[in-house]
Amino acid sequence: MGFFNLRVQQPRAIGIDLYRDLPVEPGHQELVEVFESTPNLIGIEKAGGNPVPPPPTLSQLGQVAVADLILDGDGKVRRGLLSIRADGSTKLSLGAQLALMYLEAEDIDLKPIAYPRLGLGKAVFVPFQGNDGGYVRADDGGYQILLNFRGTVESFRTISLRSVLENRLPTDLVHNRIVLIGSVAESLKDNFHTSYSHQIIPGVVIHANLASQIVSAAMEGRSLFKVWREPVEWLWIITWSFVGATGCWLLLQSNQLNQQLWLKWTVLVLSITLGEGILITGSYLAFVASWWIPLVPPLVAFTGSAVLIIFYHSFWLQQEKADLEILLETTTEHFNSVEAVLQDQTEEAIRAGEKRLIQFLEAVPVGVAVIDANGKPYYLNQKAQELFGKGVESSANSEELAEVYQNYIAGTDQLYPVENLPLMRALRGESSTVDDIDIHQGDKIIPIEAWGTPIYDEEGNISYAIVAFQDITERKRAEAERMRFTNELYQLNQANARFVPRQFLQLLNKQSIVDVKLGEAVQKEMSILFADIRSFTTLSERMSIEDNFKFINAYLSRMEPAIAENYGFIDKYIGDAIMALFSGGADDAVKAAIAMLRRLAEYNIIRQAENRSTIHIGIGINTGSLMLGTVGGPNRMDGTVISDAVNLAARLETLTKDYGVSLLISHHTFLQLNHPVEYAFRAIDRVMVKGKSEMVFVFEVFEVDSPELRKGKLATKSTFEQALWRYHQDRFQEAAELLQDCLKINPADRAAQIYLERCQAKWKNN
Questions:
Q1: Cα–Cα distance list, 409 to 402, 428, 436 (Å)
Q2: Do 172 and 234 share a structural domain?
Q3: Are residues 249 and 186 part of one domain?
Q4: Residue 201 Cα distances to 76, 77, 156, 197, angstroms
Q5: 684 and 571, same structural domain?
Q6: In a domain, 378, yes or no
Q7: Between these two residues, 142 and 180, which has the higher pLDDT value?
């Protein structure tokens, strides 16, 4: 049916990038008929490595191409095959075959020019050689070309297989176009790394790029990648080596640059970087223009030549330096006498500067303390003495600082660790800021914030440590008040969230419950989950009211996390029943249901250990469009959802009792699953939606069944579904025979037993 939907739009060529060398049931015969009736359909085979034969039917019809891809040493695809020689014949690649079929309708044919060049419309193809571009002795077997990627999967129009099967193709989508059918799922391991993008690209998209490259080159003259001949590449490398050496020597000999050493080296580094940038940019622009010119060899030649010239120039300077040192020795004595005079003047200037500095420190509004390299107090300004309640205690050593100046860990009666004081950390070369120190002055406690930093002498050794600090009593009080208010607000929000889920507010685009107005609603595609305890009435009649509530809450408290962990939220509790919504996708709802059943199994183990009866639940899931909003009156309103999809989910939950299963999903949910094969499932029924004429297919997900039952259902899945199909075709005898086969393998299959009894009853009545 899917191929018919494609063929009716008359594409020029169809390529199937899927190996079909073995028949796969059901539907193999229908696929063979499609192969035989579609002359423009091309299948694939694998010629290299571990060969995979083509579909026998397409092989007989000559409608086969090779799907081999060429991987470079780093595992990336940069080259594409046009053809290879295998089994004594030339075989075209999938992309080349599809492109030639497309161009044939444009009266464009492949023509030999001068061996091994080939002409195709406006394009001339030259086969890849092992040393082209950046390659060295690469495998150039077959007729290869360098790929000029058009893009990733987003660059091509893609349609899901589901859309094809449901005939949801836009009109003339594939008319007179090339159609490629393949998988993009990572689980099938048909994905490759390329030089075009960091993300992996499916094999079918690489074939599409090759076909697009050939068609564009032939019809539009789109450039193919070109390379230089080897002598030209050598000339290119030598030229850059000459440029690097000559340019570096000229800069090193510049008198203007030699006057400032930092400027000279800055210009050198910038010049080398600029040259490298020009080379890289030029190579990139050439690459954009479809020329692949060498980059790394000239880059190494340019940089290496420059570095060698720098080393040579440095050696030459060392020789001149030795000559200058001899001259320097003759003037040293004169400078020593001058230096002594300058030193005296400098010391006097330092003493004057220290005096002015102390005046400044006394005027600042924060406390300032200084200790020497031995940890002895050296200086405290007036503000520091006010905060500490004392001045410089010169007799105190570094181990006694916290005790002498009453520094405590904030909020405790424990002295602050001396090694963590900002002053002591500064003596270790650290700059630090802390706000967890309290100063105790009798009954008064002063919280402070302190900043410590080291002071270095001319030789780079730490001579002093300085710390600045300030009273942060008011800030601490404000922070405490803010924390109290924030905590109250958080508790209030948490309480509100227990009654109105945050997801409900988010779906209504509201930040707070205060913003919600009566009658506000949105339409969303969501999955609805209904869960209900089997025979709850019987269980509840044997319990008191208090025990009933304890039982229900114990059950619900285990189910709710499974829903929340899978990005769903509970819309409402209906007695023992749960109604949950999932806006992220059908997989979230199915995974939540599986998690609920697993947690129920764990809970039943606890109940059995307490000699209590086990619990069984049924879960129904449906996916569809629904209205989510608020209903009620001026004084009382509630959030709710309205849709036929909700009613169908509730009905599926009820059907779990009829078939003795735990989890049923509709085909609406099944079609929304990203990877249905991740779940153990089987078709189990089709039902009529109340008030509508459409039939809904129902699937059982038996992922959490006992290992024996799950294994049995998987083993009989195909047989059971064939029996179900014959049952709905009123072929009851055939269905009964298949169901008996299922029960021989899996006697505990309750659904198979129910259908067998139905078949036998209908067979007798007929």
A1: 10, 21, 6
A2: no
A3: no
A4: 10, 10, 12, 8
A5: yes
A6: yes
A7: 180
220, 234: one domain: no
Q: Which of 73-77, 218-222, 440-444, 620-624 has the highest mean pLDDT?
A: 620-624
Query: How confident is the model at residue 735, as a pLDDT?
Result: 93
Q: Is residue 212 domain-shared with residue 267, that is, in the same domain?
A: no
Cα distance between residue 171 and residue 553, in whole Å: 55
Query: Where do the DSSP E strands lie in 133-239?
Result: 143-146, 178-181, 191-194, 201-202, 226-227
**Which amino acid, one-letter code, is at 687?**
V
How many domains does the chain divide into? 4
Among the listed residues 399, 400, 469, 457, the one whose alpha carbon sits nearest the alpha carbon of residue 432: 469
**Residue 700: Cβ-neighbour burial (10 angstroms; 0-12, 13-18, 19+):** buried
- Whether 291 and 405 map to the same domain: the answer is no
Q: Which residue has the higher pLDDT, 328 or 756?
A: 756
Residues 94-132 pLDDT 10s: 988 998 999 998 898 888 887 888 888 888 888 887 777
**Residue 720 located in a structural domain:** no
* Secondary element (H or E) of residue 370: strand 367-372
Q: Cα–chain-centroid distance for residue 266? A: 41
- Give every CB contact of residue 743 below 8 A, 6+ residues apart in sequence: 749, 752, 753, 756
Structure tokens at 598: 């697993």
Token duo for residue 427: 């003596």
Residue ending a domain, choose from 206, 226, 246: 226
Question: For residue 563, what are the domain limits?
Answer: 508-513+524-704
Burial of 205 (0-12, 13-18, 19+ CB in 10 A): buried
**Other C-beta atoms within 10 Å of 243: how many?**
18
Inter-residue contact 552 to 540 (CB < 8 Å): no
- Residue 63: φ, ψ to 5°: -110, 60
The DSSP result for 182-211, as a single string, is ----GGGT-EEEESS-SS-EEHHHHHHHHH
Residue type at position 547:
D
| Residue 610 in tokens | 């307490």
Residues 375 and 449 in one domain: yes
pLDDT of residue 497: 46
Q: Which residue from 621, 641, 618 is spatially nearest to 631, judged by alpha carbons?
A: 641
- Sheet with 79-86, strands from edge to edge, namely 89-92, 79-86, 143-146
Q: Do 584 and 657 fall within a single domain? A: yes
Low-confidence winner among 1-15, 572-586, 605-619 (lowest mean pLDDT) = 1-15
Q: Residues with Cβ < 8 Å from 366, sequence gap 6 or more?
A: 383, 468, 469, 470
